[in-house]
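This section describes the prediction task in plain terms. A model, or a person checking by hand, is given the sequence of a single protein chain and must write out its three-dimensional structure as a string of tokens. No templates, partner chains or ligands are provided. The sample shown here is typical of the held-out split.
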Amino acid sequence: MSFGIAFTLRSSETGSEARAHTVGRMGRQSLTGISQRVKDSVSVRESPVQASKEDTDTSLDRMRSKEQWWSILAKSLGKKALYVVGFIALWWIVTGTHLLPAFAVPSPMAVAKVTGSSFGSLVSQGWVTVQRVIITVLAIWVVGALVGVFVGMTPRLWPLLGLGRALYAVPIVVVYPLLGVWFGVGGASKIVFGFVSGILPMSLMSAAAVRSIDENIYMLFASLRVSRVSMFRRAVLPAALPGVISAMRLSGSMGLVSVVVGEMLLSANGIGYWISNAESQFEGPTLYEGIIIVLVFAVILNSLVGFLERKVAAAYG
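The expected answer:
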């Protein structure tokens, strides 16, 4: 009898311990779930805060990059302004000390007086040249880049590069009279002459930039069966852009010079005609103001290419 009572008591104690263990485990699980839900709710509440903090950091980075860009631009303009002031000061010293005759090197004051009296005509002639230069340079850059990249990505066309180098050695100015016969004395012959002068260096340098890419990259994209458009966008464009921009700098300068030279040789308007007419009439100040306008055009074109080069370096560097 006592043995049965003891067994019954031990069984009830074991059951109580099991129930207590089960209740404790359920309590721990519930506490764990509650704490997890609390953490989730806290994280949900903190996520907008983190997102806003990331947006703030991004905007601050953009502001810093803009401030850095404006500081670089200000320094560049400051250096160029110092160069201009130094050049004018040296010019003034040379003319003031009469080291050279006045008809050969007129003083800055004489050039300024002539520019003030003929400013309207100078602006109209300069605008004619600007229009021709813009059309010529854009045509050189677009067509030359497309042709160069296509040839560079097509090995079967690489023998054409040798022919292009041979043609590049030929002085293009010898064909200008023929262009004058074909297109007349208007602006078309100047644009074509500038285009012919700049298209070869643009195409050759662009093709060389594409050919300089490692062949393993092409093999990798070919093994992955990637389209040529995707390969161009992901591999060829970032790798070849520095060389293409260098080609833009050279070919753009050649296009500008060729347009002005074409106006000097055979034209009835434009800055080249202005310079040629002043030279034939021995008008030194008028000749120098035309030369200065051409130098300003060259500086602006070079600055635009430099701006594009810095943007590309920031994007793909």
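For orientation: The first helix runs from residue 2 to 96.
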